[in-house]
Amino acid sequence: MDRKPRILVVEDEDNIAVALDYLMTREGYDHDRVSSGADAMPRIRATHPDLVLLDVMLPEVSGYEICEGIRMDPTLADVKILMMTARGSAIERRKGLALGADGFVSKPFELKALREEVRRLLSIGV
Amino acid sequence: MLMHLSLRLRVLLIFAGLGVAVILATALGLWLGYSRLDAPGAGQGFIQAGVVAGFATLGLVAGVWYLFDLNVAKPIETLSGALRARAHADVNADMDAAIARYLGDLAPAAQAAAQSLSETRSALAEAVARETLRLGSEKARLEALLSDVPVGVILCSADHALAFYNSPAADVIGAGRGKGLEAGLDRKLFDYLHAAPLRHAYDRLIATADPDAASDLLCTTRDGARVLAARMRLLGDAGSPGYVLTLRDITGDMATEARREAMLAEALDSLRRPTAALATLVEVLPEDALPAPLEAALKEEVARLSQAVTRFGAARDEGQGEASALPQTRASDLAAGLTARLDTLGITVAARTADLLLRCNGFEIITLLAAAAQHVDARGSARDLQLAIDEEDSGAAIRLSWQGPRVTVAELDHWLAEPLSPEMPDRPASAVLAAHATEVWPEASAGRAALCLPIRRARRAVARPAPVARNVVYDFELLSPARTDKLADSRLDRMTYVVFDTETTGLNPRQGDEIVQLAALRIVNGRRVDGEVFDTLVNPGRPIPAVSTSVHGITDAMVADAPPVADVVRRFHKFAEGAVLIAHNAPFDMEFLRRVEAQLGLTFDMPVLDTVLLSAVVYGQHEVHSLDALSHRLGINIPEEARHTAIGDTLATADAFLKLVPMLAGRGLDTFGAVLVEVRKHGRLLKDLN
């Protein structure tokens, strides 16, 4: 990948978003953030990110619906999806993966694990 | 006069006298005619003679008719009237034997029949009164017992009308005093409880055709105020059986559980988000933002907090779906329930299920799946609807699949927001998912679309366990103070017996033959207690000859793992303690038991009754007293497959004994002592063992 990997963070919690913003900057990613589910799909279609860091619990449109929306759009087939949940149950994880997510992390996540998962999905050597 | 002669002889004498009188009258007439032969107008003489003979004969016939009418026809009519009065009008007065004094023994015989009828009636009335009293008293005891049982018990007819309820039941269904709707026999159960889960459980039980099957379910009161855990079991009647429902109010348990769950969820959520933010923020702090020791300490504490929250969350996730209120539901029952529900809606679904027991509310899950199937069907493009229930990790996955376009998450979320059923407008389908701590999602593969609904807890079903004898073992007569300790004075129909039989390797215990099977059952107060049975194979410690196997069908292989003789006899001794032993040809069986007495340090010193001897008392020694012959005489049917099995012969012996008891009582032998005296008169037949 010649350019910086593009990451879209879909997260309604401002403090987590701030932390992720710092992390993405430090890791050298080109990143952006939306805070509501309704804004997510238009932004994804417009920016075609390499990875969407997607919270499950979002206002208006759930993370699952966004995940399904990405997977049902053939033009977004190469977009990777990493879902984040605050509940972290095994069934939520299964649901996310069944709907087409490529990875799943539970909050609170270890930053190292999150960093490695992002790199794995972007096919960047860890 | 002539009353000492029999009726038939007297009738013969009357007709003989009539014959003689007719001959005499004819002879007199002929003699008169003959004596006037020489006189002129002799013909006139013969006419006179004929007239005399004719009138004499007529007079005789009239006399005989009068006597018959007076002494035969009239008394018979009077007697039949009197008999009818006693037969149909419940007249008990003595009959006047004088009315038929010329009819020989007829009047005394009729009088005896009438008296016997009267006595039978009185005895029957007394027996009915006694039994009614006993049943009334047993009923009162049962009522007392059921009212003290802390769970609600309800008996319903097939059309769900209340036939019985105890006070806890009236309370939990919300029908207690001052709650508006009073409980009432013959009222519909659905006046108090939501019908759907109950109807569903009833239909499922009918469909299983297993009389021992029970269905666990959750139901709610009509006002929604209480949640009840219920178990339904059909009553044994064929056709449209009623059912027993036991009810436990779990509203409090569920409310406590829900409160605890909500508290946990809130606590976790309120910890997770800030911890997640904190953990991320700490990691991305600029270098030198804090003094090194401070940064290290902060990172360490945040890491500990993160780990604790993660551990706590994992433990909660693990524990979800184990709510004690969720009943175990058979996967095949779920499939059958859904198939039946959809059938009524004109939707066909093919089901395939693993043999699993799922911890879920069967009614709610079926209702949820049926609603989903209806939505899928309503889209008009779905074909070949299938249901699959498979094992998955420690739970199960329910998949409703079809050929056709998939459902989107948005559509699904919309359906889940709708009420589960019109009966429960306040309970959306999503509440069912929350109660089961699960999710549902759409899937698609190989041209088929599906909805996947995981159930957190499931286990493989083993074959339905052998039905536990559900007979309630009771005999309230045991509470009666009338029971006597004096054996000889004890009434036969009030004693406790152990009837037993053995199958053996041969007929000679003294030459080493041994028991290979021992069965026994108890009779208490004239009733076989079916729930108290002793039945075991015995390892005889020696080979079973083929000739013996051909009789009882027990082989060496069958007894290889059976307990040894000494263990079984010791257990049997305990089983028979305090009872009178009964066997058919008791000396044979008792010898097998008594030969191990010394080894075990036990004595079979219980009183013994032998049905061979009792049969001899009742039928006389000239009859055949084999068990087959006795059973045949008493109308006891021993199925061929049970014959020559210890339990089969024990049952036949017990039934024969129970039929012999009233016959002995009819001969005035109603106490153990009286029977023993009589039995000993037949010592020639068999040795009495007492």
Task: Provide key terms for this protein.
heterodimer; A: 126 residues; alpha/beta; five-stranded parallel sheet; 5 helices; 44% helix; B: 690 residues; alpha+beta; five-stranded antiparallel sheet; five-stranded mixed sheet; 20 helices; 47% helix; 17% strand; elongated
Radius of gyration of chain B (Å)? 44 Å
Strand/helix succession of chain A: EHEHEHEHEH
Give the overall pLDDT of chain B as a whole number.
82
Q: Which oligomerization state do the chains in this entry correspond to?
A: heterodimer
**Which structural class fits the helix and strand makeup of chain A?**
alpha/beta
Greatest interface (CB-CB under 8 A), with counts per chain: A-B, 32 and 36 residues
Shape of chain A: globular
Number-wise, the strands of chain A total 5
Describe the structure.
The complex is a heterodimer of chains A (126) and B (690). Chain A has 126 residues and is an alpha/beta fold. Chain A has helices spanning 14-27, 37-47, 63-72, 90-98, 111-121, and strands at 6-10, 30-34, 51-55, 80-85, 103-106. In chain A, strand 1 (6-10), helix 1 (14-27) and strand 2 form a beta-alpha-beta unit. Chain A is globular, with a radius of gyration of 13 Å. Chain B has 20 helices and 18 strands. In chain B, the strands form four sheets. A five-stranded antiparallel beta sheet of chain B has the order 2-1-5-4-3. Chain B has a five-stranded mixed beta sheet with strand order 7-9-10-12-11, covered by helices on one side. In chain B, strand 3 (214-220) and strand 4 form a beta hairpin. Chain B is elongated. In chain B, 47% of the residues lie in helices and 17% in strands. Chain B is an alpha+beta fold. Classes of the chains: A alpha/beta (126), B alpha+beta (690). Chain A binds chain B through residues 13, 15-16, 18-20, 22-23, 26, 62, 64-65, 68, 72, 86-92, 94-95, 98-99, 106-111, 114, and chain B through 268-269, 272-281, 283-284, 303, 305-306, 309-310, 313-314, 317, 320, 408-410, 413, 437-439, 441-443, 452, 454, 456.
